[in-house]
Amino acid sequence: MKAKLMFASLVLAMSVVFTGCSSDNSKETDTAAKPADTAQTSSDSSDLNAKLKDVLEQYRQFSIEQSDQLIVETEKFVAAVKGGDLEQAKALYAPTRMYYERIEPIAEALGNFDPDIDARDGDVEAADWRGFHRIEKGLWEDNKTAGTEEFADRLLSDVKSLRALMETVEVDTAMLTTGAVELLNEVSSSKVTGEEERYSHTDLYDFVANVEGAKKIYELLKPELASQDADLEKSIGEKFTALEALLAKYKSGDGYVLFTELKEDNTRELSQALDALAEPLSQMGKALGV
Amino acid sequence: MAANRKQDNGNREDGSRNISRRDLLKMAGIGGAGLLLGGAGVGALFKSNQDNSASASASPTNSSYHEEIPFYGEHQAGIVTPAQDFVVFASFDVTASSIDEVRKLFKDWTAAAAVITQGGMLGEDNENLNVPPSDTGEAAGLQPSKTTLTFGVGPSFFDGRFGLADRKPAELQDLPAFNGDALRKEWVGGDIGVQACANDMQVAFRAIRNLARVARGKAALRWTQEGFQRTSGADPSGGTARNLMGFKDGTGNPDVTDAAKMNEVVWTQSSDGPQWMAGGSYMVVRRIRIRVEVWDRSTLGEQEATFGRYRTSGAPLGGEQEFDPIDLEKKDEKGKPVIPVGAHIRVAKENGVQILRRSYSYSSGLDTRTGQLDAGLLFVAFNRNVAKQFIPMQRTLAASDRLNEYIEHNGSALFACFPGVKEGGYIGDTLL
């Protein structure tokens, strides 16, 4: 969980920066630079969104499917927690989270869901802390389900609210292109360092799910991308393949090895493969004319 | 901000280098540019832009930020170029699997380096709100600050991945283990070495940051080290810089304006082989930690005996001035050599080998294990033939230099730096 640069907040942030640094000629700068840029891009974007209407709808459907499945799996997880089945709860924790991790940028765009569902200790005021990681702490650190039941109930109601709002989300191309990069940034900032799952050490599940979420976006945009910039499309595809091959080395049963089993050389290799993918991926928006 | 933007656009568009605002500033004859050009006028200005960097060998001045050093030329800049104030050295591992991708990397780097060294902004997307900016932006509006970028390839570049094994120069091997080496793997080796120097730290950092970004997917940073020396502003006289031991360092360097000397000491000649290295040079990089705390509690007498020079003047012991000849025979009243056995300059002088040193100091915070400063020398040296110059010299120093008590070599790398890039060509095009 970390502050995000969604399109709207970017525009807002830019205007704050402009205001902040232009004490001597502020008015002139603001009016001269900003509206012209945004006006131009928004008309281009609406053409593009119309052209990619089907793709955007497919992504919306994907997000809804993932959040439907998130509810189903969270119900099982919550049942295990409330039934006092510690081993089952631990086993379901990481796989359940993957449905959330694949669509995290959408959840963040929909309001305050990310802090409620995915905050780590210290991300929010202690009194407000709930969600997956609060339960994770109980299951692994305290090694018991007792005391996490109320958080389990809250989690289920939070993911249901998320699902309800999914219906209203308006997906545009910029959301996809920035969302794909954000998913990888999530990995880069916390999963590849083992800070996300500090009690369960199941970071690789999140890692894989974030990459899968980004891959979904790439695959949906692939035909259009190939027609606009075939080299870029090819490069992104190759880097996904390389990263997936690296991740496959850490498969264990139905899941993945614990983060604590990785050596520094392993995480560095993963991190560099991730950066190698994220850089061309961040050029998708430009190639598509977002 | 609007005004800056307009100016940047102007610079970006003049690919053919028409007269820019910066040139106009230069022609006003202020600062370093004025000193350099004298009264020769506009024609000479453009000539000097196209000449090799060696022609820019004026002493540093306060206004040297305005100057750009040509990227293209017979030799790479950043070798005989008088040392700028700051360095960011970067070692890269190539992650690309084909030679085509490596070639693409060097072409992309060439285009980027040509812009960075001239103080321009990279790419065209620096105003579009919906895409990541092409340039990372921290050098926007800043002067070129004499930026140079120097590229070389290490022994591992020729390990067979790219079918180049048979083109590897015989002397391009991992440096041998020297006495007392305490190398740490996080500061050793690399497929590619890039030295970024500038008279501004932010400008130098920006260069490496952007090259690393351009390289993503083809090469990844292996290790980096930043370095500094007293700035040209703090020492307008341009005298020999002091290292962190407090002594002048580099007094014995050969004269970079002596072209014949540079051909003898620095530039690999076509007769040396391989042909692709003709006009290039071998860059030795050593991360040498100074045991600062220990050095600081040794007496001045011991310190001067260790170097063989007076700390204040830099003169050799027994001499008066910094550049006085080193007299190894001179004895004191008790018959002992004035420059003691084992003194740094005695060992170096007896060795007789010349190299071009271009070192910087470094400070990298604390060694967390001990709480002591991790500071020292980022030793950078260029030589024509490392097997005949640096290696035998370092063998002798490692065996008998009194300085060894106070230093520790903990990083090491060797790179074959390509000859200069011709306009229209690309970095390494004599090899690739």
Q: In one word, what is the shape of chain B?
A: globular
Query: What is the domain total for the residues of chain A?
Result: 2
Cα distance, first to last residue of chain A?
Answer: 26 Å
Class by SSE composition of chain A: mainly alpha
On the 0 to 100 scale, the average pLDDT of chain A is 86
Characterise the protein shown here.
- Chain A: Keywords: Lipoprotein, Signal.
- Chain A: Belongs to the EfeM/EfeO family.
- Chain A: Its main location: other.
- Chain A: This is EfeM/EfeO family lipoprotein.
- Chain A: It is found in: Cell envelope.
- The complex is a heterodimer of chains A (290) and B (432).
- Chain A is an all-alpha fold and 290 residues long.
- Chain A has 2 domains: 120 residues, M75 peptidase, HXXE motif (A middle domain of Talin 1), CATH 1.20.1420.20; 119 residues, Up-down Bundle (A middle domain of Talin 1).
- Helix content of chain A is 74%, strand content 1%.
- Chain A has a two-stranded antiparallel ribbon.
- In chain A, helix 3 runs antiparallel to helix 10 and helix 4 runs antiparallel to helix 7.
- Chain B has 432 residues and is α+β, with helices and mostly antiparallel strands.
- Chain B has one domain.
- Chain B contains 11 helices and 9 strands.
- In chain B, strands 1, 2, 3, 4, 5, 6, 7, 8 and 9 form a 9-stranded antiparallel beta sheet that branches.
- The radius of gyration of chain B is 22 Å and the shape is globular.
- Chain B starts with a helix and ends in a 15-residue tail after the last strand.
- Classes of the chains: A mainly alpha (290), B alpha+beta (432).
- The interface between A and B is medium-sized, with 31 and 16 residues.
